[in-house]
Amino acid sequence: MFSGAQISLYPMTDDFVGVITSALGALDPYRERLRIETDDISTLLVGPPEVLFPALRDLFTAAARTGVHCVLSAAISRGCPGEPDDAICQSAHFDGPLLPLAERQSTALSAVREAPMTDVFSVAQFSLYVMGRDRHMDEIYGCIEFLKASGQFESSKHFATKLSGDTGALFATLEQAFCSFGPPEGHVTIDLTVSANSPSAR
Amino acid sequence: MFSGAQISLYPMTDDFVGVITSALGALDPYRERLRIETDDISTLLVGPPEVLFPALRDLFTAAARTGVHCVLSAAISRGCPGEPDDAICQSAHFDGPLLPLAERQSTALSAVREAPMTDVFSVAQFSLYVMGRDRHMDEIYGCIEFLKASGQFESSKHFATKLSGDTGALFATLEQAFCSFGPPEGHVTIDLTVSANSPSAR
Questions:
Q1: Residue B133 in this model has a pLDDT that exceeds 70
Q2: Interface of A with B in 114-133 (CB under 8 A)
């Protein structure tokens, strides 16, 4: 299965190039396990979710620690039928058959409880899309139940769910949402926005 | 059918609040035909595609004209089964049955040719998701054929298609991609990034 993301980091400062360049160092521990390609609009990361989400967490945390209002935007995808398979994407998340929803929710919650903390507060908003199934909304609703129990749930919005909390727990929650809902071999995507240090009232 | 978007505007400058605030004036002509709600991470726009896409075009063009590197990010959705119907979303795009793909591509290309120009150059990247159909990739491939003929196609990337050109033609192309592929009553979404004035090499 092919998996990865097109990501962009937006620091709201005149020195956005400096913030991005210094935050990119946070990807160094992951470079051997990700294929990384950058152009003028986004950076492609190809690899399994258990590498991708921690890499995104560390990249965003590094940028947020500057204190600048920063946003990470990502189009995350797995199992797209139009993408070639790639050995670098081999993941332990998708072994075995699709387990009952309650069992997947319980495993996902355990993973979130064990997530490392970053001491950086963030807000995340995302939409989960499960393609190619007539009953795709069952998986979406099952995911929303998990999110409500995750400790990071903030609100349901039109088209999206909003989370907030420690950036470590947030990215663990996002990884579980991405991997535990929709069939293991399915085409599943996330449209993600993560924000820190916004001056707007919450 | 319910339709709209969660959008965010990211000006990469210390004065990001000033750029956003002044660009918001571009939404004034559309306010009676859109429901608009803002929080600390995004702004919800509820309304039909023929209002939504021109509103996004004018908002982004206003921000891009400052010369600052700006990005618009949007999660655009129609027909989500979890959303209530809303009279404000009434659209001429979805009257009648699903026409043959070639016919829809031809109509979409005509609409793009008639789009007003803005004289502002932008780059756009987006993913189109068609939910609840076993053969969703047929619609995606049909859309990509349209994009390649649109005059704005730049490249196919993993997970996304990249366009560039006049911002007026770009948003007309995006509106057609959103409305002409996937069934009229279907659940269709777009994960969109539009960028202007980036210092990165293209």
A1: no
A2: 123, 125, 127, 129-133
